[in-house]
Design brief:
Shape: extended
InterPro entries: FeS-contain_CDGSH-typ, MitoNEET_CISD
Bound molecules: FE2/S2 (inorganic) cluster
Helix content: under 10%
Keywords: 2Fe-2S, Iron, Iron-sulfur, Metal-binding
Strand content: under 5%
Number of strands: 0
Structural class: little secondary structure
Radius of gyration: 13 Å
Organism: Actinomadura coerulea
Number of helices: 1
Largest sheet: none
Protein name: CDGSH-type Zn-finger protein
Number of domains: 1
GO molecular function: 2 iron, 2 sulfur cluster binding; metal ion binding
């Protein structure tokens, strides 16, 4: 059975392979903003949109 390839979009903003994730988020300590999480300011490597999913 054939399956589709899986791609991950970069949400931390630091990938060298944008728009795809290259794993840099692990090196910079990026953590996904979830429900109830404090939004981080732009330029902090995070998202300013609460609860946004890629
Ligand atoms: S989310 Fe940006 S490098 Fe993985």
């Amino acid at each position: 059975m054939a399956t589709e390839d899986t791609y991950a979009l970069c949400r931390c903003g630091r990938s060298a392979a944008k728009p795809l994730c290259d794993g840099t988020h692990r090196e910079i300590g990026f953590r996904e903003a979830g429900p109830g999480a404090e939004p981080r300011p732009a330029g902090d490597g995070g998202t300013t949109e609460k609860g946004r999913k890629a």
